[in-house]
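User: Predict the structure for this protein chain, please.
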Amino acid sequence: MTDGPFGSNLKSSHYVSAGPRVIRLQNIGFGEFVDERAHITEEHFDTLRKHEVVAGDLLVASLGENLPRSCIAPESIGPAIVKADCIRVRLHPEMDRQYVNYALQRPAIHAAVKEQIHGVGRPRLGMAGIRQLTVPLPSQAEQQRIVAAIEENLSRLEAAEAALVAASDRADALIRSVRSSVADGTWPRTRLRDLADTQLGKMLSAKSRSGVGTTP
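Assistant: Here is the predicted structure, written as structure tokens:
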């Protein structure tokens, strides 16, 4: 496990338009890698190799809301380092990386770390807190089974979400079509009062309610 470089070792002035990547807090989503880009020169990267990230590394945010957040470094990552407050975890080969990533998203673990988080305005868990996180440890085969079950359910949720979005789009298109037809149609116009019988509401006496002496 390693944190990113602090202080003058990595400043915004070191960033360039292309080169090895710097993994920052905004790259670490809730279980997913967010492809926001920042780069440093090859020469600067060579001086910071102890903070290096490779594809498949677990990345954990130690600063921000709803800690811990984690994701897996993608295959397309290329040469990269972590920035301060981004923890790189290189897991044992027998651990399923995605299983650990999912395990860190459990509500129970977020509840458990609340007392360890410190800082006003900028909640921080820190390297020490990240090291103390606990993960259930089933066999490798069971880890893979759990990952497969989670991803199957996620696929179903994504399909359902896509269907809801498509239905919403169709509803919006129908509403726009109706509004356009009503606004632009060339049909004759008539007042609403001519389309229905209307009566003014009024208080009825007991005699009126009995039907005696009422006027049609």
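Helices lie at 42-47, 97-103, 107-112, 126-131, 140-184, 206-209.
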